[in-house]
Amino acid sequence: MNLCDIRTIKDIMSLYGLSFRKEFGQNFLTNKAVVEDIADACSDTQGTTVLEIGPGIGVLTQELGLRYDKVLAVEIDRGLIPVLRYTLQDCPEGVVEVINQDIMKTDLHALLDPYLEKGPVSVCANLPYYITTPILMRLLESGVPFSYITIMIQAEVADRLCAKAGSKDYGAITAVLNYYGEAEKLFRVSAGNFMPAPKVDSAVVRIRLYGDKPVKPLDEQVFFDTIRYAFEQRRKTLSNALSAGFPDVPKDVLTSLIEGCGHRPDIRGERLDTAQFAALSDAIVTWRQNH
After folding, report:
1. pLDDT at residue 22 above 60?
2. Does the pLDDT of residue 90 top 90, yes or no?
3. Which residues of 156-180 are buried (b: 16+ CB within 10 A; e: fewer)?
4. Tens of pLDDT along 175-186?
5. CA–CA gap between residue 238 and residue 231 (Å, rounded)
6. Which of 71, 94, 109, 289 has its CA 20 to 30 A from that of 222?
7. In three state form, how does the secondary structure of 211-271 look?
8. Contacts of 226 (CB under 8 A, 6+ apart)
């Protein structure tokens, strides 16, 4: 069954009385080469369990099921569950398991821990634009030791995830992501490769998660707060932005700590990379401990 064929998609939707649901960001891929490339990027080894988020009608699920030992496809739309039973019936027996849950409420450890004992676990997803960041942060903060997270997202968001410190696209999400892993933009996918076609192009990003994080802040929460405050008021100097977020630390002290980390006193937050944010947050933690 060619799930990339537009007529097939329409026939399936008609057969099950379904319509595309904007609230779930349903845009189905119609380019088989793109689907195959995404599936190939998910892992380096066949002995991988893949957590797929939002399988839709199963176009990517099919390809994942041909490549990897286990696919756990989490789909929020109850109406698509019988569709997936139909479209995935030819997948190798026991490989694909469809789970009707909201990934934002799924107990990821309960779901994935049994498979971590068998081999690597990776994530693959065509993420709705409106919920990309919440889902990504949930995955990163879960503590599940994913090998890779391969996601297709809005091209503009992909640029932000892969941006370098000091560039116009660099932001808080970039600095935080770089704490957990290394993001690489693989390729762009034009809007014409979807049904229905979205208003913007997409891009595929692969994140290689660190087994041992190279940056180890003294206090993770202060580290995250430092990044967040730095970008909440992006046009302000870093000392002014942090002063609003850390009212217990005098502004002149913050300026001194920033200079002590080797930066100009008038530097802005977007100039700092993840390691530099960690060093600054450590300086704040140390000052607090001594005062």
Report:
1. no
2. no
3. ebbbbbbbebeeeebbbbbbbbbbb
4. 999 999 999 999
5. 9
6. 109
7. CCCCCCCCCHHHHHHHHHHHHHCCCCCHHHHHHHHCCCCCHHHHHHHHHHCCCCCCCCHHH
8. 242, 245, 277, 280, 281, 284
